[in-house]
Amino acid sequence: MSGPDGPHRADRPDGPAPCARADGEVAFVLGGGGRLGAAEVGMLSALAEAGVRPDRVVGTSIGAINGAAVAADPSPAGARRLRRLWAEVDRSGVFGGRMVDRIRHIARTRTSLHSNEALRRLLAGALPAHFEDLVVPFECVAACIETAHETWFDSGDLVGAVLASSAVPGLLPAVQLHGRHYLDGGIVDSVPVRRALDRGADIVYVLQVGRIEQPLEAPRWPHEVAMVAFEIARRRSFAAALANLPDSVEVHVLPTGGQGPRFNDLRQLRYRDFTDVGERIDTAHEATADYLRLHPPGPRP
Q: Which residue of 25, 63, 275, 283 has the lowest C-beta tally within 10 Å?
């Protein structure tokens, strides 16, 4: 779906993949995936170094955190700051605490293993207070519990909206905004390409964590049945968006460098293990830089 396969076009002929056009609105779409979202940091760095600047950023879950950061500063320096932010996640205690502390927290709240206060403090120190303070227009999505529907945020309290979009069920608590409660945006749209298209994007760069690079297979074990079902639900809207691209739209699905977990790899559930973050960033940076050399963006007017 990415790398040497080139851009996705509804009318794409066989033969060499075209370069990105010189005109049109450029959107960055950042998908969800927890700690695997470190790959998106490498992609953002490669895009900035290649001179690819977004006109709009759309994010969900960990992609909302990375997306808000690039919308605040889409320069190479901004990408470097985002990398430092990732390095602070482990030290900040976002998913820290002893087992006994986590047991006490879930006993008290009954809904999550961790508080979101450490993440709130980390985001408040790294992001502007409001959407209106961002350099590039940004939107993120969360799942509304009361309406069982997606809700998009593009104005007002930035940190609150990003917290809502990244509120992983069971790990972090639901976030209350404007009288309603919200959970992780990946529940309703894990790679929100459709939103970027609806907003008028002509050129879309998809930053993903590697799952969609791995083909699904029929399950062989009981635990794989649930994992396959979850992956089908996760990928459905993205696959539908790619299958129905307007002729005028070009989509680049950026590569992670082959780091994506297989659907049945239980290691992806180790949400507190940040030991490979630097490697994931570097590998995705190299793979995306190679991709952009093969498919260079045209000059902006």
A: 275
Span between the terminal Cα atoms of the chain, in Å? 29
**Residue whose structure tokens are 């227009």:** 137
Whole-angstrom distance, CA of residue 37 vs CA of residue 180: 27
The residue to which tokens 């969609």 are assigned: 212
pLDDT tens-digit series, residues 229-256: 878 887 888 888 888 898 899 999 999 9
The gap from C-alpha 183 to its chain's centroid, in whole angstroms, comes to 15
As given in the structure block, the two tokens for residue 252 are 């680049």
Distance between CA atoms of residues 118 and 126, nearest Å:
13
Residue 278's Cβ-count burial label (10 Å; 0-12, 13-18, 19+) is: middle
Q: Which residues of 34-61 are buried (b: 16+ CB within 10 A; e: fewer)?
A: bbbbbbbbbbbbbbbebebbbbbbbbbb
Residue with tokens 């006994």: 100
Strand partners of residue 144: 149, 182
* Contact present, 103 and 62 (Cβ < 8 Å): no
Predicted TM-score (pTM) of the model is: 0.85
Tell me which DSSP letter residue 20 carries. B
Q: Among residues 56, 65, 80, 5, which one has the least CA distance to residue 196? A: 56
